[in-house]
Design brief:
Blueprint (H helix, E strand, L loop, with lengths): L2 H13 L4 H15 L4 H13 L15 H4 L3 H10 L3 E2 L8 E2 L4 H4 L1
Antiparallel strand pairs: 1-2
């Protein structure tokens, strides 16, 4: 973090009149910024301080959807394909069935 940005952050914190109970959080935030965290996280945190409401982001809802949401019968179809030519474990240590299934066969 550059010294100018750090000075601006500290000045902005003084403008907000941070209460003693928030000093610990403020110190943690500055430490995270020095450690390589992004400045956008700090902007979000300062915005939350100004408005007094915690902003919730939907991080858990991002990303790729599971395959089952697109192809609900995918697992059943794979099991059906493999059921006819499956074999038992050659060592007979388990009761699981095995089958070599290539990507081409699955498509």
């Amino acid at each position: 973090m550059s010294r100018d940005l750090e000075r601006n952050v500290i000045a902005l914190g003084m403008e907000l009149r941070i209460t003693p109970e928030l000093k610990r959080v403020w110190a943690q935030t500055l430490a995270q910024l020095r450690g390589g965290e992004s400045a956008s996280g700090l902007r979000e945190w300062l915005h939350e301080l100004r408005i007094g409401v915690v902003c919730l982001d939907a991080v858990a809802q991002r990303g790729r959807k599971p395959l089952e949401s697109k192809l609900p019968k995918f697992e059943a179809d794979l099991r059906e394909m493999g059921a006819a030519s499956s074999q038992t474990d050659p060592t007979f240590r388990t009761t699981q069935l095995y089958r070599r299934l290539t990507a081409g066969e699955a498509r």
